[in-house]
Automatic annotation (TrEMBL), chain A:
Protein name per the record: Acyl carrier protein
Lineage: Bacteria, Bacillati, Bacillota, Clostridia, Lachnospirales
InterPro entries in alphabetical order: ACP-like_sf, PP-bd_ACP
Signal peptide extent: none
Gene3D superfamilies: ACP-like
Organism: Lientehia hominis
Database matches in PROSITE patterns: CARRIER (PS50075)
Domain Carrier: 16-94
Automatic annotation (TrEMBL), chain B:
UniProt-listed Gene3D superfamilies: SGNH hydrolase
UniProt-recorded name of the protein: SGNH/GDSL hydrolase family protein
Organism of origin: Lientehia hominis
Domain of life: Bacteria
TrEMBL record, chain C:
Localization: Cell membrane
Chain ranges passing through the membrane: 6-22, 78-97, 117-140, 318-337, 349-370, 391-410, 442-460, 480-503
A single GO cellular-component term on record: plasma membrane
Protein name: MBOAT family protein
Membrane topology label: Multi-pass membrane protein
InterPro entries per record: Ac/AlaTfrase_AlgI/DltB (IPR024194), AlgI (IPR028362), MB_O-acyltransferase (IPR051085), MBOAT_fam (IPR004299)
GO terms for MF: acyltransferase activity
Main localization, broad class: membrane
Length: 97, 318, 510
C-alpha cells in the first residue's frame, strides 16, 4: 500500500484509492454488534438490531474507512436495512463525489 | 347504484342516533334521583314539594341568592310565599334552567334574579358551561351521571317522589363572621360588560317571564367580593333599557343598615345577621311595589306556617 | 376550548365537518384554515399573531434558500441559522426568559452586583412549543435538500396551524402532512365513522381513566409531605398511567378529528409500556418529539463538521470503546437536555431529561460488561422471563422519571423518591386508607377496569391486531353494542361535572 502519508492525503490521493469491498463493511458491523449475521440479515432497522446511536457510530466508521460523507438525508431506514443496502448507499455516495 | 350506499348510511346514522337518544333517556330515568333532596346544591330542588300553585315569589341565582334572603321571614312578616332555588356558581344558563323548572310546577307572580349569577364565568368557559347546562336539561343521565355510584334497587323500579321541602325554603342559614372593611363600590372607571352568553340567557329569562306574565325584579345582595360599581353600571344599563326594576343594595347599603363588621360570613356571602337586614328591607320594598297577597291564615297554606314555626325554633326571633 | 369539551365535540367539529363537505374539493382547505384560526382564537384568546410570524419567517427563508444556488453554501448556512435563531428566539422569549432571568438574578445576587433582569408576565402563545419545532423541521429539511420549498403560502400556513395538532401535537413533518392537509378529500363514510370511533376511544381514556386517576395523584402530590411509602409509589404509578391515558387519548381525539377530514396524522404513541429498554420507550412514547430530536439534533450534530473533528480526536486519544462512546454521548447530552428543556423552563424538567441521558449513557458504557450475563445465567435473551424482566425494569425507570416530572420541584421530587422507601407497607391496600385518597371504592373499581381495558387494547395492538377494523367487521348489533357501551362509559363513568374538578390537558401547557 502506497498511502502511508495519511496527514497529507488530498482529494486526489483519496480518489485514487480503491473503494474497500463489502467485507470491510461487514467486519465493521460485526465488531460493533458481535453475534449478528450481517451477511444475511435484511431488517436491521425493523428488527431493532441497529438503533440511531449505532447508525451514527457506523456513519463515522464509514466516513473513515470509505471516505464518503454521510449526510443526514441518507439517514433513512431503507439505507440501513441490510449490509447490501448500506454498501449500495456507500457506492452511491462515492459516485457522487 | 350510487344512491344506495348514501341512503344506507343516512338510515344507519339516523337509527344509531335515535337508539342512542332512547338509551340515554332510559338511563336518565334510572339515574335521576327518586327524591328531590339532592337535585343540586343549596336545596335547589325543594320547590317541587311545595303545594301546587302556592308559590308567589321565586328567587333564582347563585349562592348569594341562597344565603342572602331569609325567606321564611317574608312569610312571618308579610305572609308572602317565597322560595329560593339557588345553586353554587350558577350562571345565567343555570338560573334560567331553575326558572324553567319552577314554572313547570308553580305559577309565581314575581321572579327575583340575584344578579351575581350574571358574572359567574365569561368567555369560552361561560359558553361551555351553558352548553353543558343545555345537555344536562335534555339528558338527566348526563346531569346525574355520577349517581351510578349510588344506584340502588329502588332506582330501577320506584317512581319519583318529589315531595320534600326544606324547612327554610331555600335559605341557607349561616352564622360565621369575617369582618370586612373597604370601599368596594368606589367608582374606579372600570367597566364590567355583560358576557354575551350570560346576556343571552338573561334575555331568555326576561322573555320567559313575559311569556308567563311574571314580573321580574333584578336584585343585588350586598357582597364586597362579588360586586362592584362597574357591575352595577352594566346591570343598571340593561335594566333601564328593558324597563326592568333593579334593586342594588350594594349601591344603597344604608337602606339595609348592613354592618360589614358583623354581617358577612366570608366577605362574599351574607350571614344570618346580614340576611335578616336585607330581608326586612326587601319585604318593605315588595310590599310597596308589588301587590303580593298575604296568605297567612288561608287554607291550603298551612305548610308555609308550619315551616315558618319550625324555622323560628331554629332561628329564634330576637 | 380543549378537545374534550362539549363545545369542540358538539359544535365546532360538526360545523367544520359540514362546511368542509359542502364546499367544492378545491377550496376545502380554506374551511380548515378558517376553522383553525377560529380554534386558535377561542383557545388562545387572541389571534395567532406569533404563529403567523414564525410561519412567515420560515416560509420566506425556505424560498430564499431555494433561490440561492449550490455555490452559495455559506449564505445558505447563515440564512438557516439566522432564521432558526429568530424562530427559537421567540420560543425562548416566551417560554424561558423568566427562568433565565430568575437564575441570572440568583447568580448576580450571589456576586452582589447591582443589575437585575426583569421578570415579565408573559402568556405563552398556544402551541408554540409544537409549531416552532414543526417550522424548524421544514426549514432544515429544505436546507438539506430533502424537498423543495413550498411556494403555496396557504398550504404551508395550514400545515402550521391545523387545529387537531396545534395544541398538543403530534409534531408533523411537511412531507407527510403538507399535501394531505391541502388536498380536498372526498366524503368517506368510513373516515367519518372511523374518526368518531377514535375520538370516542380518546375520550374514554381521558375522561374515564386519566381524570379519575388525577384525583388520587393530586391528593398525594399537592401535600406530599403527608405521604410516604406505598402512597407515593402508587401516586407515581397512577400518574404515569394518567399521563399516558390523557396524552395518548388527546392524540386519538386529534387523529380522529383529522381522519374525519380524510387526513392522517402521524402516530405519537405505540403502546410504550411494552418497551424493553429506555431507548425503545422513547421510540414509542411521544414519538414525534423523539424523532424530531433524533433527526434534527442527534443526526444534525453527529454528522456536523465540528463533531466529526471531535470524534477523530477521540479515536486518537481514547481507548477504542470509549472513543466511540464519548462523541455519541456528547450528542446525546444535547438531545436529552433538549428533551428536558422542551417540557418546561425549570430545573426539574432539565433534570428529567438528564435522568434519561445518564441512564442511557451508563447503559451503553456498561453494555460490554452486562451483555453476557443472561447467557451465563442460562436465561435466554428472547425468553419470556427475560423479556418480562426487561419490561418491568423499563417501566420502573419510567415511573421514577414521571414522579420527578410531576413533583412540584426538583427538590420535592427527589425527597418523594426517597420517601417511598420510608415505611413502605402494603397494608394500606387492606385497611381502607386507600379509599381516602380522593377516589372512593367505585372510582377505584372503574379506574381499574379502565386500565385493564386500555392494557388489553394495547396488548392486542402490539400483537398486530387492527381493533377498529375488527370491530367494524362484526355484525351490526354487536358492534353497535360496543359503540354504545363506549359512549355510555364516557358519559356515565366520565370523571366530569359536579363532584369532580375539571382537569386541563397536561401537555397543552408545554
Amino acid at each position: 500500500m502506497l498511502f502511508h502519508k495519511k496527514e497529507a492525503s488530498s482529494k486526489n490521493a483519496e480518489a485514487e484509492t480503491e473503494l474497500p469491498g463489502i467485507s470491510r463493511l461487514i467486519s465493521i458491523l460485526e465488531s460493533m454488534k458481535p453475534g449478528v449475521d450481517f451477511t444475511n440479515e435484511i431488517s436491521l432497522i425493523d428488527s431493532h438490531i441497529l438503533d440511531s446511536v449505532d447508525i451514527m457510530s457506523l456513519a463515522m466508521d464509514i466516513e473513515e474507512h470509505f471516505h464518503v460523507e454521510v449526510t443526514p438525508l441518507e439517514i433513512v431506514p431503507e439505507n440501513f436495512q441490510s449490509a447490501n443496502a448500506i454498501y449500495e448507499m456507500i457506492l452511491r455516495l462515492n459516485a457522487a463525489r | 347504484m350510487k344512491r344506495h350506499p348514501a341512503v344506507r348510511y343516512i338510515i344507519r346514522s339516523i337509527s344509531f342516533l335515535c337508539i342512542l337518544f332512547l338509551l340515554l333517556t332510559a338511563a336518565g330515568d334510572i339515574l335521576a334521583p327518586k327524591d328531590n333532596t339532592h337535585l343540586g346544591t343549596y336545596d335547589y330542588g325543594g320547590f317541587y314539594g311545595l303545594p301546587k300553585n302556592t308559590l308567589d315569589t321565586a328567587v333564582i341565582g347563585d349562592s348569594n341568592a341562597s344565603e342572602g334572603i331569609a325567606v321564611p321571614e317574608l312569610w312571618g312578616n308579610y305572609g308572602y310565599t317565597c322560595y329560593t332555588s339557588g345553586g353554587a356558581w350558577h350562571d345565567a344558563s343555570q338560573s334560567y334552567r331553575a326558572l324553567k323548572e319552577i314554572l313547570s310546577c308553580q305559577k309565581p307572580k314575581l321572579v327575583i334574579l340575584e344578579t351575581d349569577t350574571l358574572y359567574q364565568g365569561s368567555g369560552i368557559a361561560a359558553a361551555e358551561n351553558s352548553l353543558k347546562t343545555m345537555m344536562e336539561s335534555w339528558f338527566p343521565s348526563i346531569r346525574f351521571h355520577n349517581r351510578f355510584k349510588d344506584l340502588k334497587a329502588h332506582d330501577f323500579i320506584s317512581p319519583k317522589d318529589y315531595s320534600w321541602v326544606p324547612e327554610m325554603h331555600g335559605y341557607s342559614y349561616r352564622t360565621e363572621i369575617t369582618p370586612y372593611s373597604g370601599d368596594y363600590m368606589a367608582d374606579t372607571g372600570a367597566s364590567a360588560p355583560l358576557d354575551p352568553t350570560q346576556l343571552f340567557y338573561l334575555n331568555r329569562i326576561v322573555s320567559l317571564c313575559r311569556k308567563h306574565h311574571v314580573k321580574l325584579l333584578l336584585l343585588s345582595i350586598p357582597s364586597p367580593n362579588g360586586w362592584s360599581m362597574a357591575k352595577h353600571k352594566a346591570v343598571s344599563a340593561f335594566a333601564g333599557s328593558h324597563g326592568i326594576l333593579f334593586l342594588d343594595y350594594n349601591a344603597a347599603l344604608e337602606k339595609t343598615g348592613i354592618d360589614w363588621q358583623t354581617d358577612t360570613r366570608d366577605t362574599t356571602h351574607l350571614n344570618y345577621s346580614g340576611a335578616r337586614k336585607v330581608t326586612v328591607s326587601l319585604g318593605e320594598y315588595l310590599s310597596q311595589n308589588y301587590r303580593l297577597p298575604d296568605h297567612r291564615g288561608q287554607s291550603g297554606y298551612e305548610k308555609w306556617q308550619e315551616d315558618y314555626e319550625a324555622y323560628r325554633r331554629t332561628v329564634p326571633e330576637n | 376550548m380543549s378537545y374534550s369539551t362539549g363545545l369542540y365535540l358538539l359544535c365546532f367539529l360538526p360545523c367544520t365537518t359540514l362546511l368542509y363537505y359542502l364546499i367544492p374539493l378545491r377550496f376545502r382547505f380554506l374551511v380548515l384554515l378558517a376553522s383553525s384560526f377560529l380554534f386558535y382564537l377561542l383557545g388562545n384568546g387572541s389571534l395567532p399573531f406569533f404563529l403567523l410570524l414564525s410561519t412567515l419567517i420560515v416560509y420566506s427563508a425556505a424560498l430564499l434558500m431555494n433561490r440561492l444556488g449550490g455555490r452559495e453554501k455559506k449564505k445558505k448556512k447563515r440564512l438557516l441559522w439566522g432564521s432558526l435563531l429568530l424562530l427559537f428566539g421567540l420560543l425562548f422569549f416566551f417560554k424561558y426568559f423568566n427562568f433565565f432571568s430568575r437564575n441570572v438574578n440568583l447568580l448576580l445576587g450571589r456576586l452582589s452586583s447591582g443589575g437585575k433582569l426583569p421578570i415579565l408576565s408573559l402568556l405563552l402563545p398556544m402551541g408554540i412549543s409544537f409549531y416552532t419545532l414543526q417550522a424548524a423541521s421544514y426549514l432544515i429539511d429544505v436546507s438539506r435538500g430533502k424537498y423543495p420549498a413550498d411556494r403555496n403560502f396557504g398550504r404551508f400556513l395550514l400545515y402550521m396551524c391545523f387545529f387537531p395538532h396545534i395544541m398538543e401535537g403530534p409534531i408533523a413533518r411537511y412531507d407527510q402532512l403538507g399535501t394531505q392537509v391541502y388536498e380536498g378529500h372526498p366524503f368517506s363514510y368510513e373516515n367519518i365513522t372511523g374518526g368518531l370511533q377514535l375520538i370516542l376511544w380518546g375520550l374514554f381514556k381521558k375522561l374515564v381513566i386519566a381524570d379519575r386517576a388525577n384525583m388520587f395523584v393530586n391528593t398525594v402530590f399537592e401535600s406530599w409531605q403527608n405521604y410516604h411509602g406505598f402512597y407515593v409509589l402508587a401516586a407515581a404509578l397512577l400518574y404515569t398511567l394518567q399521563l399516558y391515558a390523557e396524552f395518548s387519548g388527546c392524540m386519538d381525539i386529534a387523529a380522529g378529528s383529522a381522519q374525519i377530514f380524510g387526513i392522517q396524522l402521524a402516530e405519537n404513541f405505540r403502546h410504550p409500556f411494552s418497551s424493553r429498554s429506555i431507548n425503545e420507550f422513547w421510540q414509542r412514547w411521544h414519538i414525534s418529539l423523539g424523532s424530531w430530536l433524533r433527526d434534527y439534533v442527534f443526526y444534525g450534530v453527529s454528522l456536523s463538521r465540528p463533531f466529526k473533528r471531535l470524534s477523530q480526536w477521540a479515536r486518537k486519544r481514547l481507548p477504542a470503546h470509549l472513543a466511540k462512546w464519548f462523541p455519541v454521548t456528547c450528542a446525546l447530552f444535547l438531545v436529552w437536555f433538549g428533551n428536558g428543556m422542551w417540557h418546561g423552563a425549570s430545573w426539574k424538567y432539565i433534570f428529567y431529561g438528564l435522568y434519561y441521558f445518564f441512564l442511557l449513557s451508563l447503559g451503553t458504557l456498561l453494555d460490554p460488561l452486562f451483555r453476557n450475563i443472561p447467557g451465563r445465567l442460562g436465561i435466554g435473551k428472547n425468553g419470556r422471563a427475560y423479556r418480562g424482566f426487561q419490561r418491568i425494569r423499563t417501566f420502573s425507570i419510567v415511573v421514577i422519571g414521571m414522579l420527578l416530572f410531576r413533583a412540584a420541584s426538583l427538590k420535592t421530587g427527589i425527597k418523594m423518591v426517597f420517601s417511598i422507601f420510608r415505611g413502605f407497607s402494603l397494608s394500606v391496600l387492606t385497611d381502607g386508607s386507600i379509599l381516602r385518597m380522593g377516589c372512593d371504592g367505585a372510582d377505584l373499581i372503574v379506574l381499574s377496569a379502565g386500565l385493564i381495558i386500555m392494557a388489553a387494547a394495547g396488548h392486542l395492538k402490539e400483537r398486530g391486531k387492527n381493533l377498529r377494523g375488527e370491530i367494524a367487521a362484526l355484525p351490526l348489533p354487536v358492534r353497535w353494542a360496543i359503540y354504545y357501551s363506549g359512549i355510555f362509559s364516557v358519559l356515565i363513568l366520565g370523571a366530569y361535572g359536579t363532584g369532580y374538578a375539571a382537569v386541563d390537558f397536561i401537555y397543552a401547557h408545554f
